[in-house]
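Supplementary Methods. Inverse-folding protocol.

Structures were first reduced to a discrete structure-token string of length 417. This string, shown here, constituted the complete conditioning input.
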């Protein structure tokens, strides 16, 4: 049977085969193959493929080994001897409550040099070798914040990509707020986009942080758009979100818009923080808008905030700038009736109001009343009074004031409130 097969093979070959070749094929190919069992043939084919696979793995291992050798080696227990004294001091002040794995990373970050290794490679190596949990990540980030390290936000941003960090929406909020404080709007918006791509939804806290960021950067349009987005999404507006938008209007000089938001808040029995009211009152005061100042001052009391001397001084300043000395005096008396002791700034403001209207007699009566009540003039009010007397050419009165208050140098200008 083998001979017939060989004849068939030869007859199918147009070029012909020599007798020697035919004998070789017959004995080593056809004869051997037909004598082998099918299982043996299958085993030999499998063994041949197996050799190829092993060969490929060996080559792959060689490539991977070369790549590992090319990567920079990180010694977690040691840092370079070329670190600065400041870095050594920072390392020595690391919190003793930190775990060894966290301290190891902190040392590397404090002595970090971008010329030697990238921050992402460093963190990846730490994750691979130390197997940190979210608690470890938070410990490192908290320590970086405490040290006010320049890489704190970059580390936090890279941590978002690590599965072991278990990022949530508040982690994104913190980074956005951090970039906002540094006025890095583009970086903050990049984090916002990354957050949305990963399926997190913008909530009240994040949108409020954005309004605050845009407000601080002076971008009123984006602040307004974000504020309106909150309303359209049906997100409840609280004192923080309102306050951030009011501050945006104050910075833009749109005081009436800010005041309208205060009215809107009052209708919902929501009241802004003390600093927001104070900022709006100061803005009205500096331009001499006494009516706006009085409205805000009344709103402060409606919000349950007890005015202190500084707030009263801002109201006084508004009347003085507006040239309304009578109203300024009434505000001063109201301050005293409320049980507050006027500071030197308030006294100087009243004297400045009298000087502006050239009412020397009223100013003297005012000083006599203060002396009767045991209120002594401070440096600012004394300097203002001396300057006023000098301009009037009243030399003797100047000498009396200098003797009484022991002033050696005088200035004429009243510093801004």
């Amino acid at each position: 049977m083998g001979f017939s097969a060989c004849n068939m093979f030869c007859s199918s070959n147009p070029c012909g085969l020599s007798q020697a070749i035919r004998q070789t094929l017959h004995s080593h190919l056809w004869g051997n193959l037909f004598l082998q069992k099918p299982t043996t043939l299958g085993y030999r084919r499998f063994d041949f493929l197996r050799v190829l696979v092993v060969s490929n793995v060996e080559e792959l291992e060689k490539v991977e080994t070369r790549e590992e050798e090319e990567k920079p080696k990180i010694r977690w227990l040691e840092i370079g001897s070329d670190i600065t004294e400041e870095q050594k001091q920072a390392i020595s002040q690391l919190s003793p409550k930190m775990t060894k794995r966290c301290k190891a990373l902190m040392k590397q970050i404090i002595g970090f040099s971008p010329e030697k290794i990238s921050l992402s490679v460093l963190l990846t190596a730490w994750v691979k070798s130390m197997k940190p949990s979210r608690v470890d990540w938070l410990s490192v980030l908290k320590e970086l914040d405490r040290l006010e390290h320049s890489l704190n936000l970059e580390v936090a941003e890279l941590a978002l990509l690590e599965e072991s960090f278990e990022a949530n929406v508040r982690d994104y909020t913190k980074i956005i707020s951090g970039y906002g404080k540094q006025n890095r709007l583009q970086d903050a918006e990049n984090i916002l986009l990354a957050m949305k791509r990963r399926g997190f939804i913008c909530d009240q806290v994040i949108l409020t942080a954005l309004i605050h960021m845009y407000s601080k950067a002076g971008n009123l349009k984006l602040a307004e758009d974000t504020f309106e987005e909150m309303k359209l999404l049906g997100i409840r507006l609280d004192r923080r979100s309102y306050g951030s938008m009011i501050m945006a209007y104050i910075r833009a000089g749109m005081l009436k818009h800010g005041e309208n938001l205060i009215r809107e808040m009052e209708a919902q029995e929501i009241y802004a923080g003390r600093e927001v009211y104070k900022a709006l009152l100061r803005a009205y005061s500096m331009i001499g808008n006494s009516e706006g100042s009085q409205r805000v001052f009344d709103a402060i009391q409606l919000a349950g905030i007890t005015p202190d001397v500084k707030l009263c001084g801002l109201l006084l300043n508004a009347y003085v700038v507006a040239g309304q000395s009578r109203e300024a005096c009434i505000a001063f008396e109201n301050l005293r009736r409320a049980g507050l002791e006027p500071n030197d700034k308030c006294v100087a403001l009243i004297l400045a109001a009298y000087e502006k209207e050239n009412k020397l007699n009223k100013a003297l009566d005012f000083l006599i009343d203060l002396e009767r009540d045991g209120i002594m003039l401070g440096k600012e009010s004394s300097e203002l009074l001396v300057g006023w007397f000098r301009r009037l050419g009243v030399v003797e009165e100047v000498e009396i004031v200098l003797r009484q208050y022991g002033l050696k140098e005088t200035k004429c200008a009243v510093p801004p409130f």
